[in-house]
Write a structure and sequence with these properties.
1% strand, MFS, membrane, MFS_trans_sf, globular, cell membrane, transmembrane helix, 22 helices
Length: 533
């Protein structure tokens, strides 16, 4: 796909040399790690956090609020980055993340913790989406695999380093440090980005799609509330309940309004014409179903290890290392292979097959199982994910106009995060409803006062460990019997993604970076070439 270069004679061109690229890449990696780490760092700490703050029945919201906020923020950062430039939105995102980390660390109630996690997500969404768009701005698609491979590995590292670090901090200075640790890292990342991200800024007279922004936020929230209905303390889906019915109708109306608005405004937040692009549509749907499966699986595995496998908080983080190894291995290897051969379709296909196999294997989880066997299970899951995540982003960026790199990348990621929010909410609803029933069977026949203080909502790993037999074994089996069957709900979703991947069209990778194609930058040594065009 070729595009006319539009130069901006009133602004100096950014000269892209290897030093500049690596400096920007390093700043992006540091900031992306900060954001992706916080999607998982509370995983190992969560049983302790929700036990102390009396929120066991609603624990999914600690993760769901973060992912929901990321989903809402992504299209905003993508669109505004295309219109105004990506430098200042990126700095705002880092600042938001740091402020929210301070608030989360100081939270005294479960509700305030969830609120600060949502603010963290508003910053984290910008870090994730702008990093991916900036990489596309400075590196041609033909070479991007070598850079996106390490970026995919970074997600894998954070997926496991988060639980590991969260466990170590919970066992040591306390779970609040899972938030406070972000503060010095975030401040350092802000200053690095301020001096390293020398990117062009723009002025535009194009109107802001306020209607699209409002209806997107309301619609996304409504979808997640619907899928989280039971975890919010409601007793099942009683469709005669006027509140539930009103939420369903209201969400449908808002989503309809969003589609109506986006088809009529001149600068839509998420241009629906992108869905006419076959590559965008297929990869977006793959991201949607993968998000539903991937984050759901990762969110609850540390809880299983602590409650059912007898692992300590820190140990449960260490036991997630095989997943990191799987993601790193396949992500880096596939990235270099794509840059060398220019072919990418085979990797998401193979990755989805492997991910399905890993999820089926995880349905065999049981209390007291061999931890070597558990490690093999999650290694397979990680290896599958590493082949998919960055490859589908590369495919999207390679198939769209360079002027819409941010919008297309954020729209693709938006639907993945919607899948993650819905999947995590639905998965934890299934898990917690099963768990409540199972724990009721364990504690139901006990005389008054014999159950743990705070009831089942206050269960923490340390309390479970101190329970006398057979209560302890009953709780362990209750957690295992609640989690393992829930993975069967994810397998059909990922299978849909596999079918879609078979129809992915392979497009020749572009040899021109986004900023060069838009006339905002020139590769060192080619300054005269761009002036002649």
């Amino acid at each position: 796909m070729s595009h006319a270069v539009t130069t901006a004679p009133d602004k100096p061109l950014v000269v892209l040399n290897q030093r500049t690229i690596w400096l920007i890449f390093g700043a992006l990696m540091a900031s992306m790690f900060l954001s992706s780490l916080d999607q998982t760092i509370v995983g190992t700490a969560m049983p302790t956090i929700v036990g102390e703050l009396n929120g066991v029945e609603h624990q999914g919201w600690v993760i769901t609020a973060y992912i929901l906020a990321i989903a809402i923020a992504m299209p905003l950062y993508g669109k505004f980055g295309d219109l105004y430039g990506r430098r200042w939105p990126f700095l705002v995102a880092v600042a938001l993340f740091v402020v929210a980390s301070i608030g989360g660390g100081m939270a005294q109630t479960f509700e305030s913790l969830v609120a600060w996690r949502a603010v963290q997500g508003l910053g984290g969404g910008g870090l994730m989406i702008l990093s991916q768009a900036i990489i596309a701005d400075i590196i041609p698609a033909a070479d991007r695999g070598k850079y996106m491979g390490p970026m995919g590995a970074l997600f894998g590292i954070s997926a496991v380093a988060g639980p590991l670090l969260g466990g170590w901090l919970t066992d040591g200075p306390g779970w609040r440090w899972t938030f406070w640790i972000n503060v010095p890292i975030g401040i350092a990342a802000w200053f690095i980005a301020y001096f390293a991200l020398k990117l062009p800024s723009h002025r535009t007279t194009r109107p802001t799609d306020w209607g699209g922004i409002l209806t997107m936020a309301l619609g996304t929230t409504g979808i997640v509330l619907l899928t989280s209905w039971e975890s919010l303390g409601n007793d099942g889906y009683d469709w005669s309940d006027p509140m539930l019915l009103g939420l369903l109708v209201g969400t449908a109306v808002v989503v309809g309004l969003f589609v109506f608005i986006e088809n009529r405004v001149s600068e839509p937040l998420i241009p629906l014409r992108l869905f006419k692009n076959r590559t965008f549509t297929i990869t977006t749907l793959i991201g949607l179903v993968l998000g539903m499966g991937m984050f759901s699986a990762m969110a609850m595995l540390p809880t299983f290890l602590q409650m059912s496998a007898g692992a300590g908080v820190t140990e449960s983080g260490l036991l997630m290392l095989p997943m990191m190894a799987g993601v790193m291995l396949t992500s880096i290897a596939s990235g270099f292979a794509i840059s060398r051969t220019g072919r990418y379709k085979m990797y998401p296909v193979a990755g989805l097959v492997i991910t399905i196999a890993g999820m089926i294997w995880l349905t065999r989880l049981e209390g007291g199982m061999s931890l070597w066997l558990f490690g093999a299970m999650i290694f397979v899951l990680g290896a599958g994910m590493g082949l998919i995540m960055q490859t589908i982003v590369l495919a999207v960026q390679n198939s769209v106009d360079p002027h819409e790199l941010g919008t297309a990348t954020s729209s693709n990621n938006f639907f993945r995060e919607i899948g993650a929010a819905v999947g995590t909410a639905a998965f934890t609803t299934v898990f917690t409803s099963r768990l409540s029933e199972n724990l009721e069977g364990v504690f139901g026949g006990l005389p008054e006062g014999a159950a743990p203080a705070g009831g089942t909502s206050g269960l923490t790993p340390s309390i479970v460990d101190q329970l006398p037999e057979p209560l302890r074994s009953g709780v362990v089996d209750a957690f295992a019997d609640s989690l393992a069957p829930a993975f069967w709900y994810l397998v059909p979703l990922v299978a849909v993604g596999l079918v879609l991947a078979l129809f992915l069209k392979e497009i020749k990778l572009s040899g021109e970076a986004g900023m060069v194609a838009r006339g905002e930058a020139v590769v060192e040594g080619k300054e005269t070439d761009i002036l002649d065009r």
